[in-house]
Each structure stands twice: as structure tokens, then as C-alpha cells.
Amino acid sequence: MQGMGNAGVTQLSIRIDATPHLASGTQHGIARYEMRNENDSAVTQHMSLNCGYRVKSLTINGVETDFTDLKNDMGWSRQLAFQLPPGDVLEVVVAYGGYPQLWSVSEPTMEGDEVSSRYIYLTGTAFAPVMVAAYPGGKGVEASITLPAHMQPIVFGTGRTELLETHADGSKSWRLWSPGMM
Questions:
Q1: End-to-end Cα spacing for the chain
Q2: Rounded-to-integer distance, Cα 163 and Cα 176, Å
Q3: Beta strands in 85-168 (DSSP E)
Q4: Which residues share a beta bridge with 124?
Q5: Is residue 9 within 8 Å of 45, Cβ to Cβ?
Q6: Spatial separation of the C-alpha atoms in residues 46 and 35, rounded to whole Å
Q7: Which of 93, 149, 98 is nearest to 122 (CA)?
Q8: Judging by DSSP bridges, how do beta strands 135-136 and 9-21 pair with one another?
Q9: What is the pLDDT of residues 43-80, one digit of tens each?
Q10: Distance CA 58, CA 30 (A)
């Protein structure tokens, strides 16, 4: 695995709580990454984010952390950078949201990610920010999402879905799991 990531940095797990807003076509969420930095000092960690999303806050073990938008929008995503301190168990929490879009395109396209009253199609950085240059720890991605009664989540490949609760208004809360990014 030489050259695939930041030496000594491992992403142990990801938990995402996502909330799509059908009327506005947006999604907001909280992504929690359990990470390890075995280096003796902080390293620059990059995170890919959909071009239409903004990060509202980034904390590491509960401490607000500065980040820089690299303004390198390309295709579906752009990158942010922050300093990841050394530590065995680091909880990186990212609050994010916005309108999923292709760089410089303001309207949804047939091949793109979309949130609408008819369906929701969100993959990769359109579902949640993705850590770059961190070795995967093997626990996969766990997410929770609440959808209207007429929608059901689909996770491609070997992923799984589980209905957690049906609410009084008919909406349903689901747990999703995937061995890789959703």
C-alpha cells in the first residue's frame, strides 16, 4: 500500500447522519470519522467535498479546528485541508450541507447527483465528505437517513439497509452500511 495515503494515518470508521430536504433539493449532515495518526506530529489531511456543499464546522475530539478550502473545484468535488494531530483515537466531526452539484453547473444533470421530490441519488462526495490520503481501516461506512414514506434507500454492491423506525408522519428512518464509500 506504499504511496496510497498519509503514512501513519488510518481511517478506522465513518458514521454519517444525513438529512435530505426534498423541497429545496439540498442535503445536510454530520459525518463522524474515527481516525488514527501514528506520526509524532500533525499531518495535513485532505477531505473531498461536493462542489455545492459547505462545511459549517470541523472538530477534532470536540475542539473546533481550522480548515482551508483549497478552491480546486473539479468535476464533482473540491478539497479542504486541515491539520490532524497525532493520536490513537481521533474523532473528526464535520457538519456539512448544501445543493449537490457538478462544478460550475447550477442545475441537476441526468448523470448527476440529485435530491428531488421524486427520488434522491447521492453517491461519494455528494452523500458525505470523503477523507483523502488516509488508509482504510476496514470497518466500512455506516449512515442513518430519514426518508419520506414513498422512498426506500438502495446501497449498491454488498451494502445493506435496515428499517429502524416508521414515524407518525409516515417518514422512515433507515440505517445503511457499505464496505466502502456510499
A1: 22
A2: 9
A3: 87-98, 114-115, 120-121, 130-132, 135-136, 141-147, 160-166
A4: none
A5: yes
A6: 13
A7: 98
A8: parallel
A9: 999 998 888 889 999 999 999 999 999 988 776 678 89
A10: 10
